[in-house]
Design brief:
Blueprint (H helix, E strand, L loop, with lengths): L2 H11 L7 E6 L3 H10 L4 E2 L2 E8 L2 H10 L5 E5 L7 H12 L6 E6 L8 H6 L4 E4 L5 H20 L5 H12 L5 H14 L2
Parallel strand pairs: 1-3, 1-4, 4-5, 5-6
Antiparallel strand pairs: 2-3
Length: 193
């Protein structure tokens, strides 16, 4: 990891996880990692900075997504280990993890690997662009759009999510049947993907 990336990573780790936007960059190109860090160095959304995590492979990304409690945004390269790496990770997030809230922005070097409009809709992908078409301004705008969508996902349900999570967490401390406990755990996972 370059000195710049180490410095940015250590500075961001000081922040409480609730006070930052968690972003996972999934790309096998180290230059893309460095460029992303430079472009987003001073980026803030709603007075909260980004905490950027890096994965160089689909498997590493899957492990990180499984271990991290919340990832607000995934910036994803479509072609890494093989032609379908990006799609495989999208399917993992949406189908296996059942995570519909984490926002996904696809960046690919190959125009022919851009997801089709039907895939964008099916997997709730914020947008997909060819890397060479993404200026710093366009890239930052994509991040704003994705985080706006994250916020909208939390509000459209029409209930006080934090209150519900608090109540469900308290309920788990009571004596529940195995089936009831599973339902409560599933609800908590849905509310906090």
């Amino acid at each position: 990891m370059s000195t710049l990336l180490k410095k940015l990573d250590s500075n961001a780790s000081v922040n409480n996880a609730d006070e930052v936007w968690q972003v996972l960059v999934v790309d096998d190109d180290r230059d893309i990692h460095a460029l992303t860090s430079i472009i987003l160095n001073d980026f803030q959304y709603q007075d909260k900075p980004l905490r950027i995590h890096y994965a160089k492979s689909t498997e590493q990304a899957k492990q990180m997504l499984t271990e991290m409690p919340t990832v607000h945004l995934v910036l994803l390269d479509m072609v890494m280990e093989d032609r379908d790496s990006g799609l495989s990770l999208i399917q993992f997030i949406r189908e296996k993890m059942k995570n519909l809230r984490t926002q996904i922005v696809v960046r690919t070097a190959l125009r022919e690997r851009l997801p089709t409009p039907s895939l964008l809709e099916k997997y709730l992908i914020v947008e997909a662009r060819v890397k060479s078409d993404m200026t710093a301004h366009v890239f930052r705008e994509s991040i704003y759009n994705a985080l706006d969508r994250w916020q909208a996902c939390g509000k459209k349900s029409g209930f006080d999510k934090e209150f519900l999570v608090l109540g469900l967490t308290h309920l788990r401390k009571t004596k529940l049947s195995d089936e009831q406990d599973k339902i409560v755990r599933d609800l908590l996972h849905y509310l906090n993907p």
